[in-house]
Amino acid sequence: MKGLMELYNREEIESLFNESRLISLLMNKYQLKPKEKTMNKNQILVEEGQENEQVYYIKRGIVGFTQDENIFGFEKEGHFLGLETFLFNDVQPYTIVAMEKMEVFIFVKEDIMDILMGLQEGWLYLYLLNQAEQKRVQKSCLHLHLKGSNRSKKMLIDLAKNFGTIDGQAIVLPGCFSKKTVISYFGLSFNTGKTLLEKLQREGFLLPPSKEKQFRINKEYCQASLYSENK
Questions:
Q1: 3-state secondary structure (DSSP) of residue 55
Q2: Structure confidence at residue 231 (pLDDT)
């Protein structure tokens, strides 16, 4: 695997074999017929510690990743769930839960693995998917080593970049990112998190909420963070 990886960089592999191409390949060339299902908010897709023989493709909606009931990450439409454990075993290391009403395609994992393992790019794709999963967990751990205010700002900026939409001077998070959800993502108690959010609003990092009580992150902070990362 390492020898193959040396022939490609990440961008080359993703251009050859990304999730958009994979879903097209499965549905069109190989004509797999996934089960289509609507998941309700808070419904569990895969439970921590259980054997996972299915692969989900998020057609619409957002899921949360939880371990020991603590949220440590999220994913949105256009992504597969359930392929990232192939290098280890079929036991799910964390729970995946619907953050809102969503639509998914459900495949049999064995069917997808048979196809991917017959393709050189498929092996590379699975390897990179596993690496991305490890980085997700590592990033969560790094966040938790930051101190209160810096941790919350960094985590909110990441959410804004991945899930937010621009509305004037704000980047607005979807409604499923409630105060309770975001504070759980911070890894704080509710009262501590509530006090911290009030502080961020006084500082202007968070803009006054709309009637829907959505998180509105000051766009300037996100742009400054992006500029810093690209330097």
A1: strand
A2: 44
